[in-house]
Amino acid sequence: KSANPQWREQFDFHYFSDRKDMLDIEVWRKDNKKHEELLGKCHVDITALPAKQTNCLELPLEKHPGSLLMLIAVAPCTGVSISDLCVCPLGDPNERQQISQRYCIKNSFRDMKDIGFLQVKVLKAVDLMAADFSGKSDPFCVLELGNDMLQTHTVYKNLNPEWNKVFTFPIKDIHDVLEVTVFDEDGDKPPDFLGKVAIPLLSV
């Protein structure tokens, strides 16, 4: 019930050089669980922003009244990665030993913000639901931890996809929950939901 909402939310998007350079933002109005209405959208060219500083932007919504006030900072990625199984960041014994020393009990209070990191190996899915008329799906997997999100590539026409990817997240809150969702890619349309699992970090 507000025309001037304040969200004060921070989101971390991991930008890699092989991804598109535009940040797409949409504002939606929700009356209830079934009815939603697009209030406007805008775009930010990431490559045009100065790096290593916080940029204050007021972005007018396209074809709609109103604007968004945002702070956007482009900074080097730290602690997050996507890799294949064969070059897994924890696969090197020397690196494992350094990490064990970094997070040993005597170093617990050296950096209070450095809680640790989570490494997830996404191997495969089995017996997924068929979302296409052909009896197949085009599945990809999205991993979310707090406001961090990474995703696998799409395996086309397959109900038993193998991704074999390793994802590394920095942990900001030990009470966060890792959410792993499988979607079916559907061209220009929103992806179809195929399933989801939630794993509290405290259970790992």
From TrEMBL:
The keyword Iron does not apply. Pfam families: C2. GO terms for cellular component: synaptic vesicle membrane. GO terms for molecular function: calcium ion binding. Keywords: Calcium, Membrane, Metal-binding, Repeat, Transmembrane, Transmembrane helix. It is a multi-pass membrane protein. It is found in: Membrane. PROSITE patterns: C2. Residues 1-59, 93-204 form the C2 domain. The keyword Secreted does not apply. Gene3D superfamilies: C2 domain. GO terms for biological process: regulation of neurotransmitter secretion. Belongs to the MCTP family. This is MCTP2 protein. It comes from Emberiza fucata. The lineage of its organism: Eukaryota, Metazoa, Chordata, Craniata, Vertebrata. The gene is Mctp2.
